[in-house]
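Notes from the 1:1 (GR / supervisor)

We went over the backlog. Supervisor wanted to see one worked example end to end before approving the batch request, so GR pasted a single chain during the call. The sequence is below; no edits were made to it. Supervisor asked that the structure be written out right there so they could see what the output format looks like.
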Amino acid sequence: MFTVSLSVGALIYTFSAAALILGLWFFYDLRDRGMYDRERRKAIFHCIRCDKLYAAKAGTETCPCPDCGFRNSRLKF
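Structure output shown during the call:
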């Protein structure tokens, strides 16, 4: 029968617990970074009718103004 001493078993348990915590840390860090990047990427618009600045999701070329509804193209810098 295979027997393992108490110190070797504790060492294996400690390393496996540390590996699990480290793996979860990397997983949630990558997930949160991706969510943050998607949230912060915005396109800025300037309404030529009511002179308001507003933002919308990135990748949109035209977007209606939230105040007057006029469709404006995004600002390009």
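Supervisor's comment: The radius of gyration is 26 Å.
Batch request approved.
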